[in-house]
Amino acid sequence: MAKKRVWFYIIVFSSVFLMGYEPPEQQRDSERTSASSTRGCVVKQGELSLIGTNPLTTQLSQPILLFEIKPASPEETFLVVVRDKDLNVVFERKIVVSQEQYIPIKLSSQLVKSENYNVVAGLLCDNKIRHAKILSVDLSKVDYETASDQLIQLYLEGKPEIEFDAKEDQEQN
Question: Could you tell me if residue 108 is left (phi over 0), alpha (psi between -120 and 50 degrees) or otherwise beta?
């Protein structure tokens, strides 16, 4: 029985080798992270994506996060929160969005090199966090220019006047 198994492995490996099999490349992290929703929201929710790799790395102390939002209703509330490793809120902004658009958000807080942060963004469900459509991405500052930095820079160069139909919500959570 053991001889049959050995011959089986030899035949399989040699045929794979002769056919020129190469294992598939490791899947690269996408350049867009999309939000997913939980069940239970009674209101139709739009689509939310963060442009950049996952995990997100940046050379900038005050990076720009670029979100793509496609609202499903006339007005949707978009919330973004950045927390440090101790879960302290480093940045928070709430915006009401009424049309499909890209929203660049520059963090007002300085990131510390080699410290990990967590970016959580969501389209609120009926203006409430419960059942929101959310995405979560890790963020860290590095010493070199990253693909995400280059991607956002290209977007900003193509949009000399960033126009977006959004207004900041003055409510505090």
Answer: alpha
